[in-house]
Write a structure and sequence with these properties.
This protein has 144 residues and is α+β, with helices and mostly antiparallel strands. The protein has three helices and five strands. The protein has helices spanning 6-11, 56-75, 124-140; strands at residues 19-22, 26-30, 40-44, 81-85, 101-106. The longest helix is centred in the middle third of the chain and has 20 residues, at 56-75.
Length: 144
Amino acid sequence: MQQRCVFCEIVAGRSPASVVAEGDLTLALLDILPVNEGHALVIPRRHAAGLADLREDEAAELMTLARRVAGAQRALGLAEGVSLVLADGAVAGQEVFHTHLHVVARRDGDKMVLAVDYDPPPSREALDATAQALAGAMATRAPG
């Protein structure tokens, strides 16, 4: 039995949500486990499990709506800064497999921590080789 997608249920009006804004292709709603007041999620209306599943127009509207939400968070004094977080895949921390962009209102001293233990930087040659490989893969893959 396939589990229902909580975000699809919200889009269909079968589950409650505190809606912040709506676009033709996207919806912004408050996160039920907020880091800080005003922490919102922007989701596509159409089910798209991961970032690569979004169409170009959906991806563009997702970011446009996130930008508007971030501006409102700042205007209301809910945010001194904003973190945009999109986990794509289980290894990246994605728990709900319907693409969603967190628009996290950040305050000095809040409890959100983004930490990385960096390795020594790669050589320019290694960076250039990886950049060339990525560019090649992008050229052979259709957008969206």
